[in-house]
Amino acid sequence: MAKQAKYRLAILPGDGIGAEVTAEAEKVLHAVAGRFGLRFEMERALVGGVAMDVTGEPLPPETLALCRGADAVLFGAVGDPKYDDPQAERRPEQALLGLRKELGLFANLRPVWVHPALAAASPLRRDLVQDADLIVVRELTGGIYFGRPRVEGSEKAVDTMVYTRAEVERIAHVAFRIARGRRGKVTSVDKANVLACSRLWRATVEAVAREYPDVELEHMLVDAATMHLVRRPRSFDVILTGNMFGDILSDEASVLAGSMGMLPSASLGEGRFGMYEPVHGSAPDIAGQGIANPLAAILSAAMLLRHSLGLEAEAQAVEGAVRAVLNAGHRTADIAAPGQPTVTTRQMGDLVVEALL
Q: Is 214 a catalytic residue?
């Protein structure tokens, strides 16, 4: 992919610590532009609770229009305690579902790798998590989260799970292509012993697998996967799964890295366009204190460079800078050992920029 003269990026900081960590990711992108002679045109827009404060809508039309005209979206986090009523007609979290649906983002990639310097930060034993390196490929626009909820009075509620063969095929192709560039193994996670959707899922994945004879496929029930993910995480390479199971498994996998503050993600569609965000939420309990870990947001920016802009060398430079900072012993509070000195959100961003330049 040839480099462009200019790249348009939509920046959606959102709520809570989203604004703090996104600012550091922007800082790193500016440094990348300076080092590699690129031009990033970055424009901010409202999303989530802050958008509701101003417009009454979690995803204003202006924000959606900006995203549609961009090469990629860098997203912070959404969620505000004052909008926590689950019965409310509008909630900040609806912005995420809306963006995924309106932008056609069906594939969520959540890489989990354990930096050697952070193995002790995991609550699991070092010998279990050392060298773990996996990626969860989660289907993002189907399944129970996009079903038809129905409430019947105060005594009954119904949620529906629906998957089509086409939906499963397209996410399976993503997983197998990624596996070809890694260690060549896909673990498809379902609940085929109980759910009709999972039986369709399994049969479809097996059909797609025949197009990738160089990639090993194994099937695993979700309850077994939750156990093996913490018992033998190094046995996983690419985990392919549906919307709800992927949501749960990727959060569980965060314990391997020691903190959600270390985990980036990408949400992709059919082309190169994508939305990139840290796995963590808005964390209102620590917002404004300058202690949030920005590395997940910075690593999300690296994924943006790689997947949407085709800038592999630039992405590797950012990831190398993060590794250098961690190797030098710098830590935010969430990944620090007891008694170990810590740096602020802004200081961590500055350190990554220094290592990058």
A: no
